[in-house]
Amino acid sequence: MNPRDAYVKKLKAQLAQWNADISKLEAMAKRPLADAKENYDAQLKSLRRGRDALYQQMTTIQKSGEASWDHLREGADKAWKAMEESFRKAWSDFK
Questions:
Q1: What domain range is 49 assigned to?
Q2: Which element (helix H / strand E) includes 90?
Q3: What is the mean pLDDT of the chain?
Q4: Does residue 78 sit in helix, strand or coil?
């Protein structure tokens, strides 16, 4: 497996995990008091936007040539780290 395909496989696995996490957080968001629900809904919306953007980057990487995918990877890595931080914050807020 070439490095690009391995990276895309890793991204797909992480996106699948984030989809599962978003589902769990959505279930948790249904329980809070009305004032906290607005905050949870905003966080979920932000997480979905980030996930969708990263999915789009993954699709672009998959379609890219061997020479250009390394450059695309840098942006995806930054988005990935931002999503990880957003999930950490969401999990701590939801607990």
A1: 3-94
A2: helix 69-94
A3: 84
A4: helix
pLDDT score at 25: 84
How many Å apart are CA 46 and CA 53, to the nearest integer? 11
**Encoded tokens for 10:** 């890793």
Residues 6+ apart with CB under 8 A from 25: 40, 43, 44, 47, 90, 91, 94
- The pTM score is 0.61
Q: What is the DSSP letter of 1?
A: -
H or E segment at 75? helix 69-94
Contacts of 28 (CB under 8 A, 6+ apart): 40, 94
The domain tally of the chain equals 1
Q: Is the dihedral of CA 76, 13, 32, 88 positive or negative?
A: negative
Identify whether the C-beta of residue 51 lies closer than 8 Å to the C-beta of residue 36: no
